[in-house]
Amino acid sequence: MTCLEKLSRANRWRIRTGPMGSNDASGWNGAFLVPVNGEIYQVILSDGMGWRHLSVVNAQKKKLPDWTTMCRFKDLFFPDDSWVCEFHPANDDYVNEHPFCLHLWESIDEPMPHPPVVFV
Q: What DSSP character marks residue 71?
């Protein structure tokens, strides 16, 4: 499924009013409240400067999303054939504005470098 097809399905969770509000015409930019495994997550999508970006935080509990939850968000929002990653930056470049937030990134201008599939 393509990015646009996935976004079209995900628009049912889009926040449409208030300071985080947007509409379907905003495309891959906006905030969403998404139920996953009985919990609600706040997801913020943005694209620009050659990247699609998703940030996610549990809207109910102060805890990091686990691997399975992050895989679910990858499946919900990114194209099926996308390689998506979480970055662990150099110590001097590390910023942590929210201790319970994780991010997924997809390069949209260049193919995402990745190891051979047998290594993953």
A: H
Give me the helices (H) in the chain, please.
3-10, 67-77
Show Cβ contacts of residue 99 under 8 Å, excluding neighbours closer than 6 positions: 62
pTM of the full structure: 0.90
Question: Under CATH, which number does the domain 3-119 receive?
Answer: 3.40.1720
Structure tokens at 70: 């992050």
Distance from C-alpha of 20 to C-alpha of 26, rounded to nearest angstrom: 12
Residue 75 and residue 50: Cα distance in Å, rounded?
Answer: 20
Stretch 29-42: mean pLDDT: 96
- Whether the pLDDT of residue 103 is over 90: the answer is yes
What are the phi and psi torsion angles at 75 (to 5°)?
Answer: -65, -35
Alpha carbon dihedral 70, 71, 73, 75, in 10-degree steps, equals: 170
Sheet holding 101-107, edge to edge: 30-36, 39-48, 51-58, 101-107
Dist. CA 115–CA 9, nearest whole Å: 31
